[in-house]
Structures are given as C-alpha cells and as structure tokens.
C-alpha cells in the first residue's frame, strides 16, 4: 500500500468511524516510522497469547483472529514505511446478531509521520492520531477595529469565523471651546485607553488558547489600529505574532472580509488564498482563452487522459455526489436521461460514489504530474466553482 493523501485519509477515517464491534474486538495499531517490525511481531504474539484468557468465547475468538490477520498483513512489509503504519482490524458488526461479525482490515500509510506506538482494543477504532493529521496546522487571526468597535476573526483552513465583537463607549469628538473642551478631550482619551484595554483582554481570551495561531493582522480605518498595536494591550506572546497593519474602509464583518483580501501578501501561505487564487485563475483563463480550460467531469477526464491537464481545481463536495461509471472505459459522469457513456458510448453503466471519482482524479493527476487543489464548499470561490460543475482543469495545450 502506498502513502495516502489527506483527501484519501479523510474518506478512510469516515469509513472507519462508522464501524463498530462487540465488546473490545476492534484493534487499532499505530507503528511509528523506524520501528523494528520484528519487535512489533513479538508484541502481537504476546497479545495473542494473552487474549486466550478472555472469558467470552466470541470475543476471544475474534480478538485472536484479528491479531492473526494483522500478523499476516505485516509480512507484506520488509520495514516500516517512511511515515509509519496504522492498521485497523477486528470483527465488525453489521447487525444485532452475535456471531455474524466479519473480520476486516484496513492499513494506512499516513501522509505525516506516526510518532508513538499504540495498541488498543475497543468497540470502535481509535482514530485521534490520524484525525490530528487532518487538522489545520496554521491558524491566523484578524482584528478589525476603530474607536467605535472591533471584530476578532480566526482564519482556519479556507474559511474564517468571527469569534468576538465589541463596541466601545468612546464619545464622538467634541468641538466646544474653553475649559470644558480640554476636560472633554482628557475624558475621551481615557475612554479610548479603557476601550483598548478591554479589546486587548478580549483578544487575549480568544486567541491565546489557540496553539496553532501563527500570525495576527490588525486592520481598520484611521489610526486606532496603530495606537492599539503599539501599546501594551495585547499579551506579549500575541504581540510577537502581529505581522502587519492593514487599512480598511470598514469594520465589522465587512471589514474582516476586506482585511483578509488585502492581507494576501502577508498571509500568502494560508489555504484561504491558495484556494481562492486557484479558482480565480480558472475564470481568468476562461475569459482570455476558453480553449485552455476544461470544466465538468467528462471534459476534465478527457484532458487527463491525453495528459493535457496542468492544474486541477476540484470542489470537495464532489465526494458526496452520486455519479455513474462506465464499466467499459472507466469514465465517470453525472447521471442524466442518456443510459450510455459519453466517452465510449457503452451501456454497461453502474452507480458510483463521488469519492471513487475523486480518488481516480487524484491518482491520474499524480501520474500526469498535474497539480491538484481541493476547494472548500462553503466559500465564495467554492460557489463560483460549483457553476462549472465543481471541477475544472487549466490545460497545457488546447484539445478538441
């Protein structure tokens, strides 16, 4: 088995999460990179002998059968794969009748290294170490503010969420002259400082617990952002993560969106920009020369077939769609009134899962050295890509 991508891993974890067993009959085994497989084999044989002490006959039989299956599978490897190996094996129950379980085994070479040896028996598979590999490793924050109020947003992956908003009690500027004017200005300055202190407390509360937080952008109209950024209002650990100030015309959610858009050069590694730019590139190419873009499932498959696809942009939700697959040529397409394959004209058509199509696209992209960008659905650019059938390819050359 070759190392799986994060897209494939996500689908495998969804499948594993749905499986259940009686008692403690499902085994989760994590083998770190570099671990001696002979040591692992000895450990499993010891567990096999220990399982003989299990009182329940069915549980004993199923646990020992699962260990046997794992030992047999390990014979396929001369050494531990580069990132280690995760094996999930056990008697999976598909009903309420005891004794009708089936021994199943799924082995995964993960996209990131496994760091700890784990052997666990339970009624469900232990998936947390692999789920952690799917989590976004880099999180960004945006504080959009002026003297009237602020919004704190967190960018994770390809989306953002406003996690806190607050209004200030700073009065508007007073223009009356005399002593009252000076008293008013002093009072206003004190109100501004109180507001900055309160905003700092809110930001510290919301952002300090985020261990993955990489950078912070402070944005907004006017000079309030400079005063706040230069003062001692943020915790020093957060202050070290402030990488830029951005001018916006608005505050609130509109200001957050504006700040994110204008922070592209500061947060160029963030997934939110990579996805947006990939979709924008598709539409820009379409407007300049539509012959260099294929969109829709079948046109993209044809482009991959002749090795013309240079960059694929695919909507993640395609994995959840019900598609049709031609058993003669292997092409996928969306079911319609025609019972025949749009590629070869064959009539041997079967229902297929969208995740099978994405897996095929992923493999073919790797073989043809085309880059693949998976786009999150609930974004502006995700909705744009949906208009093209959820999948598009930028071509190396025009094809018929």
Could you explain how this protein is built, in words?
By secondary structure, this protein is of the alpha+beta class. It has 3 domains: 6-131, 2-Layer Sandwich (Translation, Eukaryotic Peptide Chain Release Factor Subunit 1, Chain A), CATH 3.30.960.10; 139-266, Nucleotidyltransferase, domain 5 (2-Layer Sandwich); 273-395, 60s Ribosomal Protein L30, Chain: A, CATH 3.30.1330. Helices cover 38% and strands 24% of the residues. The protein contains 12 helices and 16 strands. The chain has helices at 6-17, 37-51, 57-74, 128-134, 179-207, 224-230, 236-239, 252-262, 271-288, 297-305, 354-367, 380-386; strands at residues 26-31, 85-92, 102-108, 118-122, 139-146, 149-156, 159-167, 213-220, 242-247, 293-295, 309-315, 322-326, 332-333, 349-353, 371-375, 391-395. The chain has a 5-stranded mixed sheet, with helices on both faces. Strands 3-2-1-4 form a 4-stranded antiparallel sheet, covered by helices on one side. Helix 1 runs antiparallel to helix 4 (128-134), helix 2 runs antiparallel to helix 3 and helix 9 packs parallel to helix 12 (380-386). The longest helix is centred in the middle third of the chain and has 29 residues, at 179-207. The chain is flat. The mean pLDDT is 89.
């Amino acid at each position: 088995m070759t190392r799986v991508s994060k897209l494939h891993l996500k689908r495998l974890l969804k499948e594993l999460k749905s499986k259940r067993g009686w008692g403690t009959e499902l085994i989760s085994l994590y083998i770190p990179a570099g671990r001696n497989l002979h040591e692992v084999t000895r450990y499993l044989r010891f567990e096999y002998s220990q399982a003989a002490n299990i009182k329940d006959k069915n549980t004993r039989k199923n646990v020992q059968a699962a260990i046997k299956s794992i030992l047999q599978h390990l014979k396929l490897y001369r050494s531990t794969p580069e990132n280690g190996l995760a094996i999930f094996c056990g008697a999976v129950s598909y009903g309420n009748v005891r004794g009708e379980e089936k021994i199943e085994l799924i082995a995964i070479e993960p996209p990131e290294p496994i760091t700890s040896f784990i052997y666990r028996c339970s009624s469900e598979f232990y998936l947390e170490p692999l789920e952690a590999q799917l989590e976004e490793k880099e999180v960004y924050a945006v504080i959009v503010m002026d003297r009237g109020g602020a919004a704190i947003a967190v960018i994770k992956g390809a989306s953002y969420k406003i996690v806190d908003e607050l209004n200030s009690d700073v009065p508007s500027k007073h223009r009356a002259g005399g002593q009252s004017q000076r008293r008013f200005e002093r009072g206003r300055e004190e109100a501004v400082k109180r507001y900055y202190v309160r905003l700092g407390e809110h930001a510290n509360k919301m952002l300090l617990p985020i261990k993955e937080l990489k950078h912070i952008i402070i944005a907004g109209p006017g000079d309030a952002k400079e005063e706040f950024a230069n003062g001692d209002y943020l915790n020093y650990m957060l202050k070290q993560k402030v990488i830029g100030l951005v001018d916006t015309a608005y505050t609130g959610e509109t200001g957050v969106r504006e700040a994110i858009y204008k922070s592209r050069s500061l947060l160029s590694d963030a997934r939110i920009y990579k996805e947006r730019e990939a979709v924008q590139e598709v539409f820009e190419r379409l407007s300049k020369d539509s012959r260099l873009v294929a969109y829709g499932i079948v046109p993209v498959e044809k482009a991959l077939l002749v090795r013309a696809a240079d960059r694929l942009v695919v909507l993640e939700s395609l994995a959840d769609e019900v598609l049709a697959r031609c058993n003669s040529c292997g092409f996928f397409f969306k079911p319609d009134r025609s019972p025949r394959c749009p590629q070869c004209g064959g009539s041997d058509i079967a229902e297929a899962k969208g995740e099978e199509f994405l897996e095929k696209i992923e493999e073919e992209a790797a073989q043809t050295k085309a880059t693949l960008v998976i786009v999150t659905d609930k974004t502006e650019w995700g909705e744009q890509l949906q208009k093209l059938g959820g999948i598009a390819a930028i071509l190396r050359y025009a094809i018929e």
